[in-house]
Amino acid sequence: MPIKSSQVLKDVRYEIRGQLANHALDLEKRGYEIISLNIGNPGLFGFRTPETMRLAMIENLAQAEPYCHQKGIFPAREAVVMQQQNRGITGVTVEEVFIGNGVSELIDLSLRALLNPGDEVLVPSPDYPLWSAAVALNGGKAVHYRCAEDNGFKPDIAHLEASIGPKTRAIVVINPNNPSGAVYDRATLEKIVKIAEAHGLVLMSDEIYDQMVYDDAEFIPLATLVTETVCLTYSGLSKIYRACGYRVGWCVFSGDLDKARDYIHGMELLSALRLCSNVPGQWAVQTALGGFQSVKELVTPGGRLYQSREAVIERVAASKFLHLERPMGAMYSFIRLDERFRGKVDDQTFALELLEKHHVLVAPGSSFNTPYTDHFRITTLPDTDTINIVFDRIESLLGQYS
Predict the structure, then answer these.
(1) Are the C-beta atoms of residues 91 and 254 closer than 8 Å to each other?
(2) Residue ranges per structural domain of the chain
């Protein structure tokens, strides 16, 4: 009799590393060269972690051999506190900071510490699918609030508020947004905070791309606006500091901390059960946050991230088959297929044929929990020459459809 997986997995999807990605690996094993644009992994595209961070790890390797405190080493947590204070977030000490094996682990731990079976969490659509998956894995239900393209992929505030029910416990905000690249303005964030405070909901703000903004976009830390409820802020070394493999993220409790004491205790318990997070990588945090912020050179005109994003924008603008809401943050573009393909090809079919016929791997838009199937996401990490090759292949395939 076959051994079946847990029923809890029936609502869990993570197609970014799903069947298409596995198929791409099979093609590579057969000798094909695949251009993989499904994951925002800077190291794969030649981006290096700042040298000072590597040196900080090397110099402290001897101190990285034992377990550390379940919340993380003191210098790392203190560096996060200083960053929060510099951003105008008051009342935070090292006791409110948790270091984890990337933001991914902290999302899981913080939801596990909060949710009872059947509790609901408001998650944006499109979303980063780990959020919806982690809610399901921890016994909850993800309720998606609309972030429509014709509104710049910003939250539909009326739809968000109408989605609140008696079992709603939290609102997830992803800013700058993955996959859309939207950066939320102050008025939008203030409205979300007002709703959360009025209903006593926890705010969970995923800010892993916090310094990766372009042109005149302004990143506003959500915690600076929160006073009457509990806010959790998530960030880490993976994206801004190009250190995905270090697996270092942090979660900071702020806002009305008196309301959060039992919740924080739950996080401490769960953190202790897994002993501690990766210690060597934690020694890079203080150097990263306190040192030269090299990402600023990458996201301004002439910088590689800026120029690659511009190349994507230009190629979509020149295409009669594609449309794009200009991404103002992060390292992705969420591209829409023209209406002429509606009913003829969906995002899954397009992505599969692009992979098999043209050896380019993208993430179908419906992977991000959307009700529509006419988008796909690419990372803007490749150099401009590679981006042009990719769009030549996309145009070729869509030309055949047309």
Answers:
(1) yes
(2) 7-48+297-401, 66-290
Thinking of the domain 7-48+297-401, which architecture would CATH place it in? Answer: Alpha-Beta Complex (3.90)
Task: Return the amino acid letter for 280.
Answer: P
Per-residue confidence (pLDDT) for residue 276, from 0 to 100: 95
Query: Under a CB-based contact definition with an 8 Å cutoff, are residues 311 and 340 in contact?
Result: no
Structure confidence at residue 7 (pLDDT): 80
- Separation between Cα atoms, residue 90 and residue 224, nearest integer Å: 8
Looking at residue 48, its pLDDT comes to 94
Q: CA 19, CA 355: separation in Å to the nearest integer?
A: 12
Please tell me the predicted confidence (pLDDT) of residue 3.
Answer: 84
What's the CA gap between 362 and 348, in Å, rounded?
10
Contact partners, residue 98, CB within 8 Å, separation at least 6? 71, 72, 106, 109, 250, 251, 252, 267, 271
Measured CA to CA, the distance from residue 258 to residue 76 in angstroms comes to: 24
Q: What is the DSSP string of 161-203?
A: HHT--TTEEEEEEESS-TTT-----HHHHHHHHHHHHHHTPEE
* Placement of tokens 């939801």 in the chain: 111
- Size of the chain in residues: 402
Mean pLDDT, range 86-105, rounded to an integer? 96
In Å, what is the CA distance from 242 to each residue of 246, 280, 301? Answer: 9, 16, 19
Residue 340 has pLDDT above 90, yes or no: yes
Phi and psi, residue 257, nearest 5°: -70, -25
CATH architecture of 66-290: 3-Layer(aba) Sandwich (3.40)
Q: At what angle do helices 261-273 and 102-114 cross, to 10 degrees?
A: 120
Which residues, 6+ apart, have CB-to-CB distance to 142 below 8 Å? 120, 121, 123, 127, 131, 132, 135, 136, 369
Report the SS3 class of residue 398: helix
Residue 279's pLDDT band, with cuts at 50, 70 and 90, is very high
Which tens digits make up the pLDDT trace of 120-150? 999 999 999 999 999 999 999 999 999 999 9
pTM summary value: 0.95
Confidence (pLDDT) at 6: 81
Strand residues in 93-150 grouped as ranges (E)? 97-100, 120-125, 141-146
Strand 120-125 with 141-146, pairing: parallel
Tell me the per-residue pLDDT of 215-249, one tens digit each, with 9 for 90 and over: 999 999 999 999 999 999 999 999 999 999 999 99
